[in-house]
Amino acid sequence: MNAEARRILLVDDDTDLLRLLSMRLSAAGYAVTQVESAEQAMARFPVLQPDLVVTDLRMAGMDGLGLFEEIRKINASVPVIILTAHGSIAEAVEATRRGVFSFLTKPVDSRALLEEVRKALNLSGAQPGVAPTGKDVAWRREIITCSPLMEDLLGRLKLVAESESSVLLLGESGTGKELLARAIHLASPRAAGPFVAVNCGSIPEALLESELFGHTKGAFTGATQDYVGLFKSANGGTLLLDEIGDMPLALQVKLLRVIQEKQVRSVGSTRVEPVDVRIVSATHRDLEAAVASGQFRQDLYYRLNVVCLEVPSLARRREDIPLLAEHFRKTLATRSGKKLTGFAPEAMEMLLNASWPGNIRQLINVIEQAVALSTTPVISADLLQAALRVSPEKFPTLAEARRKFEQDYLVRLMQMTRGNVSQAARIADRNRTDFYKLLQRHHIVPQLFKPE
């Protein structure tokens, strides 16, 4: 059995059917655990941590819906498929209203079951090799992910955190750069010290110097008392300079001096004071381009960019969307006092297919609006459509992605060779006849690329 196969907990008091379904699911590559009652399932659930539960509805003792409710209390993101020989419209409606992923009647069609299992696992974001748990990962406790991209980033982040090197976090707005900066702090030897964050783009230029370095009483109009500043507040800990790309050039010079000399002078003071601060900076801007255009100092860039970590956009870690959506749904529902059991399958599919230009920040806003407007226990696709305000962008299939790549590749070849099919075929390492067939398949006419 593949140790990284997705784990399915199969529950049925019919031992023959249990064995048959287990064989079918195992043959499809899943790691199946069989139990004969809901009580046994609850005993195995915390240890097994399944990605999906498939359960009979009618069983002695606790029934399938009762098992579903107990599972929701432990982990609401695990989808549940219910099987029954006593199927009825009323039971199906009740089950889906309460958040059950799907409801199948016996005798179960193998293809239908496998298709529902596939959909449930895709929409739940279940992935093999999810993040570990325990004291050794306390530093990442606020980061919700099962994405290989994020796991790779977190592995490098942990290594970097143990050093004193300055770190530059690059990524789109709303990707969680401050959360990752805090994780660096918590994983570092400075974890017991303060973590201080400042958004360099949100503070007026005239006040930013005072905010960073402090000021003395009477240093300027309105300075009615001494202010220590964020550098001294972060002494012994970590200072996050968020949106560092928005820092004015004049202040960049002073920041560089503080980093080099490890001492700070408050505005209005002649006395310098030592500071021991680890710098983490973050930006959504292209700092290399800013350096090239003279908008950002090259010497400061190299001081800040000792280690550079790129934070992936939400669109590049779509497998995290169900986990994040469930987390925000539970948090926001608790805050608002609403009893929401989950998302309709169509709603979760809509979240998975959205383009998310605002990343996780946008996802939070969408879920918050849906929670506020929801009048049923299950969040519907209509609510999310209204919150997204855009038609969801469908994620392409492999065939669609391959076709798009081929078409773009052929058009570029035709442009490079100015419609010379023989030359293009040689570059593509295809014989001329096959290459012509490719062009015809994509409706590309070589003559259109020849110079007039």
Structural descriptors:
Rossmann fold; Helicase, Ruva Protein, domain 3; 5-stranded parallel beta sheet
Count of DSSP strands:
14
Helical coverage, percent range: 40-55%
CATH-derived architecture of the largest domain: 3-Layer(aba) Sandwich
- Proportion of residues in extended strands: 5-15%
Quick one: biggest sheet? 5 strands, parallel
CATH superfamily of the largest domain: P-loop containing nucleotide triphosphate hydrolases
Alpha-carbon Rg, integer: 28 Å
CATH class of the largest domain: Alpha Beta
Mean pLDDT across the residues is 86
How many domain regions?
4
CATH level 3 topology of the largest domain: Rossmann fold
Globally, the shape reads globular
Task: Give the spatial strand order of the biggest sheet.
Answer: 2-1-3-4-5
Q: For the terminal residues, how far apart are their CA atoms?
A: 63 Å
Keywords: ATP-binding, DNA-binding, Nucleotide-binding, Phosphoprotein, Transcription, Transcription regulation, Two-component regulatory system
Domain Response regulatory: 7-121
Domain Sigma-54 factor interaction: 143-372
Modified residues (4-aspartylphosphate): 56
